[in-house]
Amino acid sequence: MIPLSHYLVLSGLLFGIGAAGVLLRRNALVVLMSLELMMNGVNVSLVAFSSYLHSLDGWILVFFVIAVSAAEVGIGLALLLVLFAQRGTIQVDRFNLLKW
Amino acid sequence: MEAVLFYSFAGISVVGGVLMTTRKNPVYSAVYLVLTLVAVAGLFILLNAQFLAAIQVAVYAGAIVVLFLFVIMLLNLKGADLIEARPPGLTSVAGLAVLVLLVEMVLVGGLGRLTGPLGEFTPQRLEAVGNTQAIGQALFSKFLLPFEVISLVLLVAMVGAVVLDSHRRAAEAGAEGASSTPQQAVAEGPAA
Predict the structure, then answer these.
(1) Does A18 touch chain B (CB under 8 A)?
(2) What ipTM, to 2 d.p.?
């Protein structure tokens, strides 16, 4: 029986790797994909807790996280297409219209 | 046996995640994302959540990553667009922040003191009732309001995507007008 802590460490690792991708990559597509990786880390933690505590609530929350993630990716990519049409680039540090 | 499966799925997901965040070409990143997602689905099956594993593969790997690939192909980025110039010092600051986050999470999660009250869905009960039926019953009784709200969220996302597409067409038409003749650009400026 794998101890719960192993699953939580894996969840933390996935979340951290996704966070590194969000912070360090300039390509907006890879940033969005790293965001998905972070959400998967959270899902692993939720399912692990739910299975080890003999409950369904974690699974239902994962259901909703997946649905929200799908909606967010759809809108995010549509926004990215508009940005690309207007600015001609998808490097996140070029989107600096609000700076001095 | 379970340990072998866990460590292989976990290793594949972590390696896939690291490879995904480091590839220059976003298509390679999308492929490694699929690898990570399928490995996480394997972990869900190990945790006795077969319905969630199927949903993970069908929605995440089957729809979301396909959407990513559509957009990547639509953007059609060439070599110059793929070069990423980072501000100096960003790598060290962000790396330090992520390292602190990782150490904290591994310490908190790995100490093994996180626990809670046990529920009623033991693996035997789940096997008797059926994974899908149990989730369905919970979804339509205890979690009915979030279920209806999530359908609204998806509706808003669909409408938003269509609206944003009209903005994209307007932006593209404006860009084409600006590149064709300067007089047309002046005329189209306030209208766009």
Answers:
(1) yes
(2) 0.93
